[in-house]
Amino acid sequence: MADPDLYEAWKRWRSEAPVPDDFADRVMASLRLAEQKPGRRFVHMLRGLLRSPAFRVGICSLACIAGLLRVLQVIVLLFSEQACR
Amino acid sequence: MDEDQDVIGRVLDGDVESFRLLVKRYERQLYRLICNLVPDAHDGEDIAQEVFLTAYRRLATYDSSQGAFSTWLFTIARNKCFNALKKRRPVFLYPLPETPMPRTPDAELSEAEWFRSLNKALDALPFVQKTVFVLAEIQELSLQEIAQIEGVPVGTVKSRLGRAKEKLRALLRPEEQPDGRP
Questions:
Q1: CA B172 and chain centroid, separation
Q2: Mutate to test the interface with B, among A1, A8, A12, A14 (most CBs of B within 10 A)
Q3: What pTM value is reported for the model?
């Protein structure tokens, strides 16, 4: 056998890596196991919620309202102090 | 590619079982890559499983505009193999002979022995050269894809590949005779 043939034969041999028949089943089983952990469920649920535009708009609106309320609170505090004087 | 995107969308919407399609589609290529990077078959199987698990967990971060799903998956596999080898480096490394055993007509080695020598030489390559060699010569990926997986310019991939091939081919080069004849 000529050298290049030997090299090519070796490459072909290296590229033969038979996958075990039940490999996909085992991957899916470990995936389901990982999914059953309580923390993962919460993360999955949160990820699902964050993918929803309506949920994101809602969260942003709530944050804006909270910010506005805080500003109003400071203004009210300022005026009430002035009224006391 | 679009098929991958459809499946990814379904998985992200909560259809976990659809992930099996991605596993089935890429298990062969992924397994081949890992088995060529990590010499221990049992480790290879564990790593392959871990790669799919990591891919599932990080699926939301996959951006199709950055490259194919397979490229993303191979990048995860490459990094997992790198970490595995780093942990067990002394076990996996075989020293490359200073002067590779030359092929001479008098001392013709059997194919199996040459395969073993080449395997040892491949395992002894620095990880970056080994990865590029496996991705290019065994996985038959394009230089652009390899550059993306390795996170280096195409020129660097070419030079790493050249060096790796040279080391391996040196094993098969017939010994030069004193009069210059091969």
A1: 21
A2: A14
A3: 0.71
